[in-house]
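From the methods appendix. Each design record in this collection lists the tokenized structure first, followed by the designed amino acid sequence. Records were kept in a plain field format so they could be parsed without special tools. The example shown here is representative of the layout used throughout.

RECORD:
FOLD TOKENS (140 positions):
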């Protein structure tokens, strides 16, 4: 007996279709990481984190296309930061970490006499954990 396809049966097997959203740019198959929306009334292109679900008037872009995005002349591009992404450390953060490591590596001077093991209490210090200190804000 010859089997017939039903009218709604797909010619493409379902395991070929990927659940990952792809870049909307023609011939780009990379995974989408950002969503582009146009606000025509304000002549603004808004590029933000990948939307929860695909919208009909939004475009999903891969990392490369979202970085190279330009808007038409007279338009403004607004890039919204992804708040779930980890923030990169600033120079101040790295300097504070380096200073804390240097302080922890510094040998304790125990020959200076009585009370040498104790440090002077800093009025700005709120708490201490090991070699790290929590300081009160100068505004308070």
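DESIGN:
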């Amino acid at each position: 007996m010859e089997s017939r396809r039903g009218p709604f049966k797909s010619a493409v097997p379902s395991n070929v279709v990927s659940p990952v959203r792809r870049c909307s740019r023609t011939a780009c198959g990379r995974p989408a990481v950002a969503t582009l929306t146009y606000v025509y009334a304000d002549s603004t292109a808004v590029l933000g984190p990948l939307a929860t679900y695909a919208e009909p008037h939004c475009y999903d872009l891969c990392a490369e296309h979202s970085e190279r995005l330009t808007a038409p002349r007279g338009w403004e591009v607004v890039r919204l930061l992804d708040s779930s992404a980890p923030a990169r450390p600033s120079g101040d953060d790295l300097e504070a970490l380096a200073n804390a490591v240097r302080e922890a590596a510094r040998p304790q001077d125990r020959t200076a006499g009585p009370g040498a093991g104790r440090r002077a209490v800093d009025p700005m210090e709120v708490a201490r954990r090991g070699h790290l200190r929590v300081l009160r804000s100068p505004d308070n």
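APPENDIX NOTE: The beta strands are 34-39, 44-49, 58-61, 76-79, 125-129, 132-135.
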